[in-house]
C-alpha cells in the first residue's frame, strides 16, 4: 500500500497532471448526464467483470499454479505377460522367461489447465476452483494490517523501506500463509473452514520465515530493479522532452529502450518472482502432516532431501533444496501455465472492455459525442 500511495502522489505532483487539472477546473466541462437505469447497468456490468476476473485469476494463479508447484509426476508400472512358449522340439533355456516389467511416466495432471480443473472437480467438487479462498482473504487482510503498522513505524528515510516492510510482514505471517497452502493442496476435509487448525506449530516458523520474507519482497525488489533500468536508459525524462521534434533515429531508440524494459520485466518475473514463489510453496508443502493426503501426486521426501523428525531430521526441506528439487521439466510446465493464464486474462479483459464500451455508447452515446467534440476543440 505504501508503494501505491507513493506512485499516486508522485503522479498528482507531476507538472503535466497539475496543469491538466487546472484547465479542467477553469474550463468547467459539463458533466455527462446518464439516466439512473444507465448508471445501474454500468455498475452491474463492472461488478460482474470484477468478480469474474478475480475468480478467474484466483483459480488459475493461486490454485492451479500452486498445485503445479508441488506436483511430482507419478510413474506407473505395467506388467506384460511372457512370450508364448516355444515349440516342444526346441530345447528350453536354462532360465525361464518371466513377465516384462515396464516403468511408464504418466503425464502430469497440471500439464494443462483443463485437466487440472477437471481433476479438481472430480476430487473436491464444484467449489474446488476457489479452494482456500477464505484463508486467502484472511491472510491478505492480516498482511495489509501488518504492512500499515510497519509503514507508520519505519522512518521514510530508510533505504528500501517498502522492501523491508514487505519482508517483515511476510515473515511474521509465514505460518498463516502455510495454512492457506495446506488448504489448497490437501484433499477436502470434513469441515469447511479449518484455518486455525491448519496453521503449523510455532516451532516450524524458523523454517518458513526466510522463504516467506523473500517471496513477499520479491515483487518490490523487481520493481526497484525495473525503475533503476528505466533511469539508466533515461526513460524517466521522456515526459519532459518535446516528442514532436524527435527524429526517426530518436523514435527508434525510444522504442528499443521501451522494449528492453518489457524484456527486463519478464526476466525479473521468471528469475526472481517465480523462484521465490515456488520455494515458499514447496517449503510449506514439505511440513504438511503425513496423515493428510494431497490432491496431486507429491514426493514428500523431495528426492531424499527431507529427513523425517523421527530419524533426527527437521522434517522440512531446506531453502535451496526446495528450488533445486523443482526440475526443469516442472519449471517449463509452470512457465507455460503462466503464459496461458495471462493470455486468458488478457482476452477476458479485452472482451469486457468492448462490452463495457458498447454499454456506455448505448446508455450515453449522444452525451459522449458532445464531450469528445468539446475536448477536441480545446486541443486535448
Explain what the structure shows.
The chain is mostly helical and 380 residues long. 64% of the residues lie in helices and 3% in strands. It has twelve helices and two strands; from the N terminus they run H-H-H-E-E-H-H-H-H-H-H-H-H-H. Strands 1-2 form a two-stranded antiparallel sheet. Helix 5 crosses helix 6. The longest helix has 50 residues. The N terminus is likely disordered.
Portion in beta strands:
under 5%
Elements, N to C (H/E) = HHHEEHHHHHHHHH
Shape: globular
- Tally of helical segments: 12
Biggest sheet record: 2 strands, antiparallel
Mean pLDDT: 81
Spatial order of the strands forming the largest sheet: 1-2
Number of E strands: 2
| Low-pLDDT stretches | 1-18, 24-29, 76-80
| Gyration radius, rounded | 28 Å
Q: Specify the structural class.
A: mainly alpha
Distance separating the two termini: 32 Å
Helix coverage percent? 55-70%
Keywords: Membrane, Transmembrane, Transmembrane helix
Transmembrane segments: 37-56, 132-150, 162-187, 208-231, 251-274, 341-364
Provide a short characterization of the protein structure.
This protein is mainly α. The chain has helices at 2-13, 15-27, 36-70, 113-124, 133-153, 161-172, 174-185, 195-198, 205-232, 248-286, 319-324, 328-377, and strands at 75-80, 100-105.
List the helices and strands and how they pair.
Blueprint: H1 2-13, H2 15-27, H3 36-70, E1 75-80, E2 100-105, H4 113-124, H5 133-153, H6 161-172, H7 174-185, H8 195-198, H9 205-232, H10 248-286, H11 319-324, H12 328-377
Antiparallel strand pairs: 1-2
Amino acid at each position: 500500500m505504501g508503494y501505491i500511495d507513493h506512485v499516486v502522489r508522485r503522479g498528482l505532483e507531476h507538472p503535466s497532471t497539475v496543469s491538466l487539472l487546472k484547465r479542467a477546473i477553469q474550463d468547467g466541462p459539463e458533466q455527462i448526464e446518464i439516466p439512473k437505469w444507465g448508471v445501474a447497468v454500468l455498475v452491474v456490468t463492472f461488478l460482474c467483470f470484477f468478480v469474474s476476473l478475480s475468480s478467474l485469476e484466483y483459480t488459475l494463479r493461486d490454485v492451479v499454479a500452486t498445485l503445479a508447484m508441488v506436483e511430482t509426476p507419478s510413474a506407473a508400472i505395467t506388467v506384460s505377460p511372457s512370450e508364448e512358449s516355444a515349440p516342444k522340439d526346441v530345447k528350453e533355456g536354462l532360465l525361464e522367461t518371466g513377465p516384462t516389467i515396464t516403468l511408464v511416466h504418466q503425464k502430469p495432471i497440471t500439464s494443462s489447465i483443463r485437466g487440472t480443473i477437471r481433476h479438481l472437480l472430480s476430487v473436491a467438487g464444484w467449489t474446488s476452483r476457489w479452494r482456500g479462498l477464505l484463508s486467502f482473504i484472511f491472510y491478505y487482510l492480516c498482511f495489509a494490517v501488518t504492512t500499515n503498522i510497519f509503514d507508520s513505524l519505519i522512518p521514510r528515510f530508510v533505504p528500501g523501506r517498502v522492501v523491508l516492510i514487505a519482508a517483515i510482514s511476510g515473515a511474521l505471517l509465514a505460518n498463516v500463509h502455510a495454512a492457506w497452502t495446506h488448504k489448497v493442496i490437501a484433499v477436502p476435509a470434513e469441515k469447511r473452514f479449518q484455518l486455525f487448525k491448519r496453521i503449523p506449530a510455532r516451532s516450524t516458523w524458523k523454517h518458513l520465515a526466510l522463504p516467506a520474507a523473500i517471496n513477499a519482497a520479491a515483487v518490490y525488489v523487481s520493481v526497484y530493479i525495473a525503475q533503476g533500468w528505466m533511469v539508466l536508459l533515461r526513460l524517466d525524462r521522456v515526459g519532459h522532452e518535446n516528442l514532436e521534434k524527435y527524429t526517426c533515429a530518436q523514435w527508434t531508440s525510444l522504442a528499443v529502450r521501451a522494449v528492453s524494459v518489457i524484456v527486463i520485466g519478464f526476466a525479473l518475473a521468471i528469475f526472481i518472482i517465480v523462484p521465490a514463489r515456488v520455494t515458499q510453496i514447496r517449503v510449506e508443502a514439505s511440513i504438511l502432516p503425513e496423515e493428510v493426503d494431497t490432491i496431486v501426486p507429491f514426493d514428500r521426501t523431495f528426492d531424499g532431501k527431507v529427513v523425517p523428525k523421527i530419524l533426527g531430521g527437521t522434517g522440512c526441506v531446506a531453502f535451496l533444496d526446495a528450488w533445486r528439487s523443482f526440475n526443469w521439466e516442472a519449471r517449463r510446465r509452470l512457465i507455460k501455465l503462466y503464459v496461458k493464464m495471462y493470455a486468458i486474462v488478457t482476452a477476458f479483459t479485452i472482451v469486457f472492455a468492448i462490452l463495457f464500451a458498447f454499454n456506455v455508447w448505448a446508455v450515453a452515446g449522444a452525451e459522449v459525442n458532445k464531450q469528445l467534440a468539446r475536448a477536441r476543440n480545446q486541443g486535448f
